[in-house]
Specification:
By secondary structure, the chain is mostly helical. It contains twelve helices and no strands. The longest helix has 24 residues.
Length: 243
């Protein structure tokens, strides 16, 4: 169970404490549990949604989004902000882009990007609540974290010696393929046609963003992985709200 606790500690703000520094092999195996963490997030959000039934719909959506951000501790939003600054400020240059990502300060592009992504998530949640189509609360976090597994499975990690390098190097690849397949089936079983639509749009978003990473950086970093998750979750929610 250690790989699951590692995944929970890394991906969430839940009070998980490990007894010591895990071995690289355990770190790699923790990636296999990322979709399960997403499913757990989805279950918690779905339960909160049920508890908020009957509350003012704008407040309902705002509380759901707040809980969503708090569950992950804003980790992936930070990656999105860093990636947004670096993508514009890097002017197409790989080394300049990587350097800007390491800068802890956030520029105006990062702020605008975060505002737009959170605004789209909020309005999509609002629409889904009004439509009583809240299966997206489960599908989006599940697909977002499954996408991280897919990214580390087939995309080079470009910061040698970083945490992501240990994850990628020790990921059990055959098992990862089966986990991704199970995640896809879970989406269809949970959401039916909506689940299939969410899966298709998540896959399209994944391949487009991965291609951009490869063109600019030759692979991924922790920041671009976080950006991928946030943009993919946003896309799934918006598509389901429009469906």
């Amino acid at each position: 169970m250690l790989p699951l606790w590692i995944a929970l500690q890394f991906l969430s703000s839940l009070p998980i404490r490990l007894p010591g520094m895990p071995a690289p092999e355990q770190m790699g195996r923790s990636l296999l549990f990322y979709p399960l963490v997403g499913l757990l997030f989805g279950g918690l959000l779905w339960a909160l949604n049920a508890l908020l039934a009957g509350s003012p719909v704008w407040l309902h959506a705002a509380l759901l989004l707040t809980a969503w951000v708090m569950l992950s501790g804003g980790l992936h939003l930070d990656g999105l902000a860093d990636s947004a600054d670096a993508w514009l400020g890097g002017f197409g240059d790989r080394e300049r882009t990587l350097t800007i990502m390491k800068d802890p300060r956030s520029g105006p592009i990062a702020v605008v990007t975060l505002m737009l992504v959170l605004l789209l998530k909020f309005t999509a949640l609002l629409a889904l609540i009004e439509q009583q189509a809240t299966v997206g609360l489960i599908l989006a976090p599940l697909l977002g974290r499954a996408a991280l597994l897919g990214l580390f499975l087939n995309t080079p990690y470009v910061r040698a010696g970083g945490l992501g390098q240990a994850l990628a190097d020790h990921l059990p690849r055959q098992s990862a393929g089966w986990v991704l397949l199970a995640s896809a089936l879970a989406c269809v079983l949970l959401g039916g046609w909506s689940g299939l639509l969410a899966l298709m749009m998540a896959s399209l978003t994944f391949f487009v963003l991965r291609r951009l990473m490869l063109q600019r950086l030759g692979g991924t970093t922790g920041d671009t992985a976080g950006a991928l998750l946030e943009l993919l979750e946003m896309t799934v929610l918006v598509v389901l709200a429009l469906h």
